[in-house]
Amino acid sequence: MSVAFPVDQQVHPISRLAPAKINLALHVTGRRSDGFHLLESLVVFARFGDRVEATLADADELVVTGRYAPDVPLDDGNLVVKARDALRSKAGDKKAPPVRITLEKNLPVASGVGGGSSDAAATLHALAGAWGMEMDGPELAEIALTLGADVPMCLAAKPLVARGIGEELSLVPNLLPLGLVLVNPGVPVLTADVFAALASSDNSPLPPLPVHLDFHGVRNWLAITRNDLEPAARAIQPSIGAAIAALDKAGSGFTRMSGSGATCFGLFESGNMAKRAAAAIRSRHPDWFVAATRTISSEAEDR
Known about the structure:
Order of helices and strands: EEEHEHHHEEEHHHHEEHE
CATH topology of the largest domain: Ribosomal Protein S5, domain 2
Number of helices: 9
Distance between the termini: 34 Å
Radius of gyration: 19 Å
């Protein structure tokens, strides 16, 4: 049985990048009465990540490819499926016919770079196009928040400061692209375990952002900030320390764990320096996840 698609809906595949989310700094500043932790974080997005492709089909289908496909569930435990169902619920079945979604999974699962949240955000973008939906940013962001506190920031996919439980977003203008190397030693870390092991939930907020948001300005600012989740994550997975040491040995200008781990990032002054460092780390640790990339600038529009 075939489906007759409305003329205003797109039959050709629509592809969207689901960029890695990097917490350059992450301060835990308190805890709400419902148990959720309050955060302040400077977040950037990489030009490397997963990719979501959506096309209208005879029946709903999720296909997962890529290096980390075996680690991804195909049922409604997957945020891609949840994003599809949430957007369809908003649009109505008649305006949201069946779709085939292909997820190219290039990022490790449970790795502190927002892979699942970014996949969900990319799915919302792709399906809005495939279904010919005219929705503005706030409408999609409202749906995104029902999927998780990190999904709205991944929907924006530009440099920003996140506060609250991650839902209060302030875009950061004039942040130039930064060279990054991402390294994961091949171990998953559960966010809940890291928060449960926190020594303190009441820490100082982020300092004011620097005037010059280039490599030198950001690196110097990062030196007076923290990732309050890193000590707890390193206690759970000591190999995070090995990833940080490998980045330092490769010449990183600044090294830190992202999010709740175990992925770590190294900041490099140029893309070529990042590529050379990634190659050196990859040669010593062929089983690790290693990627050289650049961040998406404040003004970038392409996905």
